[in-house]
Amino acid sequence: MLNTAVKAARRGATIINRASFDLDRVQVTEKQFNDFVTEVDQAAEAAIIEVLTSAYPDHAILAEESGASANLHDENDNVWIIDPLDGTTNFIHGFPQYCVSIALQQRGVITQAVIYDPTRNEMFTASKGAGAFLNDKRIRVTRCDKLADALIGTGFPSRDLSGLDEYLAMFKVMTSKCQGLRRPGSAALDLAYVATGRLDGFFEKGLAPWDIAAGSLVITEAGGIVGNFSGDSDYLHKGDVLAGTPKVFAQMVNALQPFSAKK
To answer: What is the C-alpha separation between 163 and 171, in angstroms, rounded?
Structure first.
């Protein structure tokens, strides 16, 4: 299944790479304020789904552009969660920070994950219980154990600005507690960077399952921890995500818990 996901990611990336050479010809549509989709997103997603459903016709699909397949229901044990181009805004500006993200959820548990950065030819993969890899080399989170020494990734609100004041408050808290904050613009790739040690932690609110699913498994298989702002595990469909090395994660929970969703 992981090999099939890798094949699908490469198929989608071929379309993305081809389009990246002539961005002026890419047709861009604004789905909502500051939320863009291109014909490249749609073509890459179709190619990815074709590979996956050809191999596993009974599996369900949950994808960013086409949504849920007709067979997505509680009884379906296998669901592929797909973001064909995470970082579309970066892509349309020629900013080389975007990726393909594919995960397999089986009976509610993410068991396979692929995050592929076509600009660097970096393939992050993980299978539950079998470790995390970058281009077939085992990866681990850093040994960073102090938030004060940590480089942290995040994402800014761009579509729904109603939470901007809250984010600015979080930004202030984290800026005062960590060594530096970075916002590259692709949540899935940011999570992969935590897994491979380029970041020590990551936090963002309002994400979708396809932003999180693959990266969450890559991080946990690399020895890190993923949760919501309270440290709990119900982040996938609620969208508030916090991740990091074990000790940095705990310190981030302590710092950001006041911003956890009020239920």
So the answer is: 12
